[in-house]
Amino acid sequence: MLGVIINVVTVILGSTFGLLLKKGINEKISKAAMTAIGLCTLYIGISGALEGENTIVLILSMVFGTIIGTAIDIDALLQKAGDFLENKMKSKGEKGTLAQGFITGSLLFCIGAMTIVGSLNAGLQGDNELLITKSILDLISSCMLSSTLGIGVMFAAVFVLIYQGGLVLLASLLQNILTDTAMIAEITCAGSVMIIALGLNLLGITKIKVANFLPALLLVPLFYILSGYLPI
């Protein structure tokens, strides 16, 4: 869990620094920074998506995962969590900013390829190197993101702790199953497709409810195993 803890701390530190810079950054620079983050997010997503080789597994996982996520409406649950934090902070004149920062930060820090593979490495082998590397990247991302979206990004550290910590614990419990590198590649691929959607949102091109895709990550191992019995 060391890598997870370090990641949580870097998100908090980066967000704090970003908030301190916020007042000194004009709107034009803020928009440019968000565009840069969006483009980099797209690059990260596309790079990870290319690791997958079984398109059928990706399609089935994304479709059924999104159906489940939409039925539960995970996006609305995260929105409510953000709104709750916003009401507690009693922020005025920035309605929705805290919730937006919380949701965007939570997704950006948690569904990338490095999160998945890093958490699996930590849980299966006790290797925290990839999570620590990710922490350095999140330090920079949280700084830039909080300078534009506000304090909600800092609260995303809670989601990082729960989500990444959960993955590490799950991996340690399922060591006999999660040893197939091809399966991990397919999980990474699905997560990276979500990262692409998030990048499009950051660029203002779409308003995709990316959080509703999250159950797809849990379905990838199931469809991967089932695909082994199909003539494909």
Written description of the protein model:
- There is one protein chain.
- The protein is mainly alpha-helical.
- It has one domain.
- It has 10 helices and no strands.
- The radius of gyration is 17 Å and the shape is globular.
Feature tags:
232 residues, 79% helix, 0% strand
Question: What secondary-structure arrangement, pairings included, does this model have?
Answer:
Layout: H1 2-22, H2 27-49, H3 55-72, H4 74-89, H5 97-110, H6 113-125, H7 129-149, H8 152-173, H9 181-202, H10 215-227
Q: Beta-sheet strand percentage?
A: under 5%
**Rg over CA atoms:** 17 Å
Major sheet, described briefly? Answer: none
Derived from helix and strand composition plus strand pairing, the structural class reads mainly alpha
Domain module count: 1
What's the tally of helices? 10
Helix content: over 70%
Shape: globular
Low-confidence stretches: none
Task: Please trace the helix and strand order, writing H or E for each element.
Answer: HHHHHHHHHH
Number of strands: 0
The end-to-end distance, rounded to whole angstroms, is 38 Å
Mean pLDDT across every amino acid position: 84
